[in-house]
Amino acid sequence: MPEGTDYYLAAAVLGTALLVKAPGLLRRWRSPTVRAVNALLFLPCAGFVLSAPPTVADVNRLSGISNLSALLVHCIMTAYACASLVLLDYWRGESEDLARTRRRVRVWQIGCCVVIAVLVGLFALGDVPVERPRDFDTYYAATPFISQMLVLYLLAYIAAGLATAVVCWDWILDVREKTSHRSRTSVDSCLRVGLTVLVIAGLANVVFGSFKVAAIAARWAGRDWDALNESLPPFISASGMMIGVGLLVPAYGPALIDRVWQPLIGITALRPLWRLVSSPENTRNDSIFLPPPWYAGPEQVLLYRMTTIHDWMRELSPHCADDIREQVYRRARESGTPRREAAAAGLAAMFTAASDARAREAPPVPDQAAGAVAAVRRAETQDRDLLVSISRALRGTQGRSGAHQPATYR
Question: Mean pLDDT throughout 333-354?
Answer without folding.
Answer: 92
